[in-house]
Amino acid sequence: MTYQQGPYGNYPSQPGYPVQPGYPLQPGYPLIPPPRRTNGLAVASLVLGLTGFITCGFTSILAVIFGHVAIGQIRRDHTDGRGMATAGLVLGWILTILWIIYWVLVFGGIVANIIGASIASTDQFDAHAALTGAGMPPTTAW
After folding, report:
1. 21 — phi, psi (to 5°)?
2. Are 63 and 20 in contact (CB under 8 A)?
3. Alpha-carbon gap, residue 50 to 43, rounded angstroms
4. What's the rounded Cα separation, in Å, for the pair 76 and 134?
């Protein structure tokens, strides 16, 4: 009996089992394509968009950038993650706009407070006199 050299070195290969009479051949497993990869920038965009609530919108800008780049890569490479990239984009834009509005109102309030304080100190507005009419010239009745 001679042995053939197997695919893994000098070990002999064993013969397969014969088909039993009366049983048909069973089909093999169907070929399933490997799972598609998820784009890493899409995941990063979603995570940075969610952390924008905590970081006062600083990571939201990165979420917008990473989301746009991820969508371009997904179109080119046909990878998964389009929903995550879109969610990161939406969160990034919304939080960026909200934080810009917030900071404009905060700085606007500070500026208005400074301007209002300087006007009040130079005007010497007398609220009591304005309400009671004290210090006003008398009106003449015709």
Report:
1. -70, 140
2. no
3. 11
4. 79
Token pair listed for 113: 């407070």
Among left, alpha and beta (phi > 0; psi -120 to 50; other), residue 25 is beta
pLDDT per residue rounded down to tens, the chain (142 residues): 555 555 555 555 566 666 667 666 666 777 778 888 999 999 999 999 999 989 888 899 999 999 999 999 999 999 999 999 999 999 999 999 999 999 999 999 888 888 876 665 555 556 666 666 665 566 666 6
Type of residue numbered 77: D
One-letter amino acid at 106 equals V
How far is it, in rounded angstroms, from Cα 108 to Cα 112? 6
